[in-house]
Amino acid sequence: MVFSSYPFLFGFLxxxxxxxxxxxxxxxxxVAVAVLAAASVWFAGYWDWHYLPLLLGTVLFNFTMSWVIxxxxxxxxxxxxxxxxxxxNLACLGYFKYAMFVVGNFEALLGTGFGMAAIILxxxxxxxxxxxxxxxxxxxxxxxxxxxxxxxxxxxxxxPHLIAGPIIHHKEMIPQFRSSGFGRFDxxxxxxxxxxxxxxxxxxxxxxxxxAPIADAVFAAADQGLPVSTLEAWAGTLAYALQLFFDFSxxxxxxxxxxxxxxxxxxxxxxxxxxxxxxxxxxxxxxITLSRFLRDYLYIPLGGNRHGFxxxxxxxxxxxxxxxxxxxxxxxxxIWGVLHGCYLVIQRLWQRLNGGKPYDDGSRxxxxxxxxxxxxxxxxxxxxxxxTLEGMLGIWQAMAFxxxxxxxxxxxxxxxAADLLDQVGIGFGGAGYVRLRLWASAGPLLGVALLLxxxxxxxxxxxxxxxxxxxxxxxxxxxxxxxxxxLGAAFFASVIYLGxxxxxxxxxx
Length: 509
Known about the structure:
Blueprint: H1 6-26, H2 29-47, H3 52-71, H4 75-110, H5 125-142, H6 149-157, H7 159-162, H8 170-173, H9 187-223, H10 230-261, H11 279-285, H12 288-299, H13 309-327, H14 331-353, H15 368-385, H16 389-399, E1 406-407, H17 409-414, H18 416-423, E2 428-429, H19 436-455, H20 459-466, H21 469-473, H22 477-497
Helix pairs in contact: 1-2, 2-6, 3-4, 3-5, 3-6, 4-5, 9-10, 9-16, 9-19, 9-20, 9-22, 10-15, 10-16, 10-19, 12-13, 13-14, 14-15, 15-16
């Protein structure tokens, strides 16, 4: 069950909110914790109840390990137990996410088959495993006291974040479960939560899903070994970059909105990443909670910038390599991680050669730094999207202007101008997968989506300022009316299109 579905919107969510708000009228926050924990476990089991024991098993394992770590008086024993717990989590993730990839590579290398049965990736496993690894490390490092079983169960399984993040931290979340506002109906919070949720739903359904056909057509052609034109390659890659942003940030907005509805504040996960002026700036804006996790639990333990410049470069590269592997079991994800690792290393080297001056001067203008960063990010999105190495190389070759510049679909539309373009060396070709009708329907939306990604205010500004109840109440009836109407129209349009679109992209990770 996904947020952008009728069962969730008109079944699960109203029932859970009614129960949560209802019990808080007569009971303390701990009762709302129990209600939401039960609802979250049911939500997780709705996808496939066969994997519910796995989720609950990891919760029980890590909860037990946290108390075992806490009970050890000896520092060496504490660390050993922590490492055992981390290893158990990684073994679980490794089996379900990477076993088939490893076995497949051995089969290709040895020219034989082991007859391994297909393993279905449990939804959300990457997120709840990372969340619990951080928890164990913090219990060991900070010597903090573990939490009670009900609080910990809700922390891991809380349904807005469970499937695709954001990656939450126990110090941010669990104290909220005992606050007076947890689970309670609050008009301002509910209004803000609705604004967040509708904005995220519109991003996903009205924008991401409608530009997806261009990316799907181009990458499907490349993955089948068919040639694509330069324009198709760049447009398809840009379409995927925007689809992924509006899809994933839309999910994050919906998760934050759901948090407001139940009295929980989730961390922001995006800050207009395609306005970044450097790769480092991009990673401070894209999937912010993952960047925080990689920094705190990989980059800093690997040495960070505390052991000399070469060690810093190595730590940066290894962190991004492992970040790429976390996203998926495939050589394309390894290549994506390698590319971003190289990007960050080059950035650090440039900074060193530039006399230690900041690589990002804080300017928000879209200048040369932005153009270089955007091009680098787009090039890296190709292996992230391509399902085969052949498809990845085909897109890259087309992006490098090694084939026809324009798709065949445009020849008829351009008429006599097509002959003139041929004469000056601008040829037509490609697989023809992106038909003229698709260019006409999704092409203009691609341009609109790019403008929105660059210039639309951050989600928190729109939800809490433009559509927040306090701001609306003091802005006059006319402003209140048109903003409320716009939000209602966005929700109505999104609901109409719910049945026609796919699940969230990040569910596969």
